[in-house]
């Protein structure tokens, strides 16, 4: 697809930082308000993992269970396909200003993915970085674990996810910070409050 025809916002933050911008009621509000398509790299990977006949299913399961980052070519291809599919679906209508608006949640997690996507697919306009303490994230994930059914929502894997995030994803945030693209939002507060700040940030981008 044509990179000139998309506006991309990356949504990053530690596991459980609460990407409210890409989730639940808030998500659909924001999606409606700005006409975004929301794509979560983690959701796409879990979908592929469960897809019958997928050659990557077992591999994805192993990486996620260990809190490691799935090889970049797999995630990048899933995202690119999902974006292309959305663009095709909405050709001609549905997009504001004739451009596809994407909120890409939980990606890029590693410098090579960031640079690879920048170079071969498209450049993001903004990176929203939700930040809070590991204590807060741990509590939220353990609470979510009661109902999420996610194999990686257990203390041992959560600790590994924190380590992977600090070692591999923080450099991505620093990379975009140096390019002046990062909007950091403290996500310690209640969902509504965080959403309020996130919404203002996105409004500014489009004004
Ligand atoms: N909650 C949220 N905000 C709150 C608030 N303000 N106050 C109180 N509670 C709040 O939130 C987590 C929980 O906290 C929820 O119960 C929520 O209600 C509550 P959520 O919005 O789900 O947080 P999020 O940051 O999205 O947490 P998630 O666990 O989804 O983040 P991860 O980044 O770990 O998960 P993801 O799905 O992106 O990735 C999973 C795995 O996939 C990775 O570990 C990795 O193995 C793999 N992966 C890749 O390899 N490559 C990729 O590019 C992407 C993923
Ligand atoms: Mg997530």
Automatic annotation (TrEMBL):
Give the region (NMPbind) as residue ranges: 40-70
Name the positions where a ribonucleoside 5'-phosphate binds.
46, 68-70, 106-109, 113, 150, 161
Q: Which GO terms describe its molecular function?
A: ATP binding; nucleobase-containing compound kinase activity; phosphotransferase activity, phosphate group as acceptor
Which residues are recorded as binding ATP?
144, 189
User: Can you say where in the cell this protein is located?
Assistant: Cytoplasm; Nucleus
UniProt-annotated stretches for the region LID: 143-153
Q: What is the top-level taxon of the source organism?
A: Eukaryota
Q: Which cofactor does it need?
A: Mg(2+)
What GO cellular-component annotations does this UniProt entry give? cytoplasm; nucleus
One GO biological process term: 'de novo' pyrimidine nucleobase biosynthetic process
In the record's own words, the domains note is: Consists of three domains, a large central CORE domain and two small peripheral domains, NMPbind and LID, which undergo movements during catalysis. The LID domain closes over the site of phosphoryl transfer upon ATP binding. Assembling and dissambling the active center during each catalytic cycle provides an effective means to prevent ATP hydrolysis.
| Species whose genome carries this gene | Suillus subaureus
The protein's name is: Uridylate kinase
Provide the reaction this enzyme catalyses. UMP + ATP = UDP + ADP
Give a yes or no for keyword Cell membrane in this entry: no
Cofactor note text: Binds 1 Mg(2+) ion per monomer.
């Amino acid at each position: 697809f044509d990179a000139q025809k998309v506006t991309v916002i990356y949504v990053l933050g530690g596991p459980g930082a609460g990407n409210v911008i890409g989730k639940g009621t808030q998500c659909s509000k924001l999606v409606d308000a700005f006409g975004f398509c929301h794509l979560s790299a983690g959701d796409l990977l879990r979908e592929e993992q469960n897809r019958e006949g997928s050659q990557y299913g077992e591999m994805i399961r192993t990486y996620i269970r260990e809190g490691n980052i799935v090889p970049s070519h797999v995630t990048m291809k899933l995202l690119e396909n999902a974006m292309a599919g959305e663009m095709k679906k909405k050709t001609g209508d549905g997009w504001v200003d004739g451009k596809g608006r994407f909120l890409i949640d939980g990606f890029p997690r590693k410098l090579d993915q960031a640079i690879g996507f920048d170079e071969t697919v498209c450049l993001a306009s903004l990176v929203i970085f939700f930040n809070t303490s590991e204590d807060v994230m741990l509590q939220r994930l353990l609470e979510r674990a009661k109902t999420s059914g996610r194999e990686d929502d257990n203390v041992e894997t959560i600790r590994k996810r924190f380590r992977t995030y600090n070692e591999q994803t923080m450099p991505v945030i620093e990379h975009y910070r140096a390019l002046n693209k990062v909007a950091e939002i403290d996500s310690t507060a209640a969902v509504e409050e965080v959403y309020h700040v996130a919404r203002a940030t996105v409004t500014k981008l489009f004004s």
